[in-house]
Amino acid sequence: MHCRHVRAVPLHTYRKKSKMNHATIDRSTIEQLVRNAIRANGNSLQSGTPSGSPHDPPGWVGGKPNLRVSISARHCHLTDEHVEILFGRGSVLEPEKDLYQDGFYAAKQTVMVVGPRRRMLPSVRVLGPTRADSQVELALTDSISLGIDAPVRHSGKIDGTPGCVLVGPAGSVQLERGVIRAARHVHMNHSDADHYGVSNGDMMQLKISSSDCSVVFDDVLVRADKAAKLEVHIDTDEGNACHLDAATEVLLRKGDCSCKN
Ligand SMILES: [Zn+2]
C-alpha cells in the first residue's frame, strides 16, 4: 500500500484528478471537495464525485463509464464455517467498510496467515460476504515473504494451489489449498462492456501513465455482471510498479490480438 493510505483498508482507488487550477480555489471550496471525496470513497484521492443519474447503468457518471483502477491489497475470503472456527462459535463477519462493488465489504476481522517454517503475515483483512471456499489473495512480494509459491489465478480457481494456516483469536484452520496471486481483472456491467466492445471473459489492456514509470498491463480479464461497476483490480506489486497514486492518466482498451503472433 502507499504511504498516504491506511494499511488496514484493503482497497484504494485511483481516479482522474481534477484539472482545476488550485490557485483560484478558496479554502472553503477545497474543504468541501475534501469532505465530498471522503464521503464518496473513504480514502479516495478523487476530488468530488458528481452523482450518477438514476437512469445510468451502475457506476456511470454524466452518461459515461467512470473508470476506476483500484489496488487490492492482500486479503482473504472465508467460509461461514471457518469464520466460526477462527472467531468463535456464532461469529459472523462484521462489515467495516463497503467496497466500491455493491454488496462487498472489508470486514472488521483480520487473520494471521502462516506459511512454512513459521513465516507469517500477522494481519490479513477478511473481505465479505463469506464464500463457498476460503481463499487467500497475495501479491508476489507477500508470497515471497511467506515462503509460499502462490500461482497467478483468477478468483475461485484454486484447484492445485498451495495452502497455508489461518489463525484467528478463537482457533486456527489448515487450508489445503487456496493461496493465490489474484490475476488482474476488470469488473464491469453490460453497458460498460458494450461501450468497450468486449464480453465477459475477454482480455483487455490497461495503460497507466505515471512520471518515469508508466506501465501497460495486458491480460486484464473482463468480468461482466449486470450489477458491477467499472473497476480494474490490480495487486499492490502492480500498483506500486506504476506508482498508481501519482498516475496522471489511465486508459482501458480492448486487447489487440494483432500484436501477438
Ligand atoms: Zn475484483
If you had to describe this structure to a student in words, what would you say it looks like?
With 261 residues, the protein is α/β, with parallel strands linked by helices. The protein folds into 2 domains: 11-70 and 184-255, no CATH class; 72-181, no CATH class. Helices cover 16% and strands 32% of the residues. The chain is built from 5 helices and 16 strands. It has helices at residues 27-41, 80-87, 140-146, 190-196, 236-241; strands at residues 11-14, 68-72, 75-77, 95-98, 105-114, 120-128, 135-137, 152-153, 164-167, 172-175, 179-182, 185-188, 203-209, 215-224, 231-235, 249-254. The strands form 2 sheets. Strands 3, 4, 5, 6, 7, 8, 9, 10 and 11 form a 9-stranded mixed β-sheet that branches. Strands 1-2-15-12-14-13-16 form a 7-stranded mixed β-sheet. The longest helix has 15 residues, at 27-41. The radius of gyration is 19 Å and the shape is globular. Residues 1-10, 16-24 and 37-49 have low confidence and may be disordered. Zinc ion is lined by residues 185, 187, 233.
Apparent shape:
globular
| Average pLDDT number | 85
Which cofactor or ligand species appear?
Answer: zinc ion
What is the number of E strands?
16
In percent, how much strand structure appears in the residues? 25-35%
Radius of gyration computed on alpha carbons: 19 Å
**Class from secondary-structure proportions:** alpha/beta
Distance between the termini: 36 Å
Low-confidence residue ranges: 1-10, 16-24, 37-49
Helix content: 10-25%
Number of helices: 5
Biggest β-sheet, characterized? Answer: 9 strands, mixed
SSE pattern, N- to C-terminal: EHEEHEEEEHEEEEEHEEEHE
Number of structural domains: 2
